[in-house]
């Protein structure tokens, strides 16, 4: 099965993914794949102000993140709906939908992201999507603390924009409420999430 953990920067996605991996036999994968994907690396350069005005376009950035995921589409497909294997993703397609809606102010971009990633690029839809219920203020404080403790974790343009983080969280809530691209659970409790996984 494909389990996607979603949330804004500093929400605790990596912590939850690590906790879940300690409870169930699953592979994990994080997006963006900055170490392995040229598309993710270009997006990272842009977010740190080294690609001119590229970040000015929400659609250009969303396309780079989508192409990053498309690079492992073949690896992900065998997990879809499988009962004998599981992969837990730290961010997936919904992150593109949420951030793009927050940047454009238009939920119509939800459909554009769905068509781009799931239909045109052939990524499998997740079996379960988990939205971490971390308040934007708390998530921002965590991101700032992480940056102060590790110079390699300098916040990028998106992470420094508190309005964007607030709007992205609100967009995530709307995606979860409409069960966009599949089933959602709104929780940070690994026990609750395991119960939802058992229902699949």
Automatic annotation (TrEMBL):
Region span, Disordered: 139-160
Q: Check the record and name the InterPro entries matching this protein.
A: P-loop_NTPase, Thymidylate_kin-like_dom, Thymidylate_kin_CS
Q: Which UniProt keywords are present, listed alphabetically?
A: ATP-binding, Kinase, Nucleotide biosynthesis, Nucleotide-binding, Transferase
A Gene Ontology molecular function term for this protein is:
dTMP kinase activity
The Thymidylate kinase-like domain sits at: 5-180
The UniProt entry, under CDD domains, shows:
TMPK
Quote the protein name from its UniProt record: Thymidylate kinase
